[in-house]
Amino acid sequence: MYFNMTNKRPEMIEYFLRIYLSNREVFGEGCEGMVCLSSFVTEMMIFFEDGVSKKELRNQDFFSAFGLFMGYLGGMVFLFGEKMLPQELDDYAQPVSENIYNALRHRS
């Protein structure tokens, strides 16, 4: 879904990667720290907690898991934006998903 949004609305990703992350101070009041992203972070917390309760994901520090997840996606989108990927972004969806899942999954 993230890669699909990147293909449909690359300006949104460009905005986030280049403007928001580099210049958060321009957003002023009410947008300090994670406040502007709090609903997204909350949804991700619920997603991870649900995966842990179903024993699909390993119980681990949320922010470490979140960083792995978002860092990987953000890195791929950055490479896409810089035209450095040899294939289309969608071609990476399956292997990226598998890598993220394997890094987070519960091992029995």
Beta-strand level of the residues, as a percent range?
under 5%
State the helix count. Answer: 5
N to C succession of SSEs = HHHHH
C-alpha-based Rg, rounded: 15 Å
Which term fits the overall shape?
globular
Straight-line distance between termini: 29 Å
Task: Compile the SSE list and pairings.
Layout: H1 2-8, H2 10-20, H3 38-53, H4 62-81, H5 93-104
Helix pairs in contact: 1-2, 2-4, 4-5
Characterise this structure:
The chain is an all-alpha fold. It has a domain at 1-7 and 47-108. 61% of the residues lie in helices and 0% in strands. The chain has helices at residues 2-8, 10-20, 38-53, 62-81, 93-104. α1 packs across α2 (10-20) and α2 (10-20) crosses α4 (62-81). The longest helix is centred in the middle third of the chain and has 20 residues, at 62-81. It is globular.
